[in-house]
Amino acid sequence: MLCRVGYVRRCAATLNPILGAVASRQKHTLPDLPYDYGALEPHICAEIMQLHHSKHHATYVNNLNVTEEKYQEALAKGDVTTQVSLQPALKFNGGGHINHTIFWTNLSPNGGGEPQGELLEAIKRDFGSFQKMKEKMSAATVAVQGSGWGWLGFNKDSGRLRIAACANQDPLQGTTGLVPLLGIDVWEHAYYLQYKNVRPDYVKAIWNVVNWENVNERFQAAKK
Ligand SMILES: [Fe+2]
């Protein structure tokens, strides 16, 4: 049986390098925050950051690992039905891990202000001004029905910046093709303890801690 599993894994790796990587990869781990839980106060309080990172993000990571393990077993057995049935969990927990990993680096206690250089020029070209981009992204983010994310993304085909909204934990690139540059999490776990039901106030405040250096790095990488 072990030989058969090994054979199947080798075949999977040959036929599909991504699935092969799944079969042999290490487990996903919760990344450290690049700042303290209280570092984004008063805009995002320490209690929100601690729960959001150590509980919510950690749960996506754990459930992603469980899902991938089940997927790996199904793959080894040639059980396509189970593989298909695991897709929603993979999308939800994989998306949750991808989105939050980006989100933490999009924020900084030294953030806020405006982007510089090429990113600012691209924003002006595609939205008219930085202020207009902020207004458009804020409106799209506040308008997310239920839980989801607002995004500034990059369309590699057109070379243009785009605003998008995603439901649940749908990852931007995996579901729209846009490369994620800046995400705003509008799940209630991201703001309710501090802002209660007033999502617009949270979205307004988060601009004070946006790490434009990180957004610009993502923009430069996306253009290559
Ligand atoms: Fe979140």
TrEMBL record:
The keyword Metal-binding applies. It holds the Pfam family Sod_Fe_C. Residues 27-108 form the Manganese/iron superoxide dismutase N-terminal domain. It is an enzyme of class 1 (oxidoreductase). Belongs to the iron/manganese superoxide dismutase family. It is found in: Mitochondrion matrix. GO terms for molecular function: manganese ion binding; superoxide dismutase activity. This is Superoxide dismutase. Keywords: Manganese, Metal-binding, Mitochondrion, Nitration, Oxidoreductase. Residues 115-218 form the Manganese/iron superoxide dismutase C-terminal domain. It comes from Ctenopharyngodon idella. Its main location: mitochondrion.
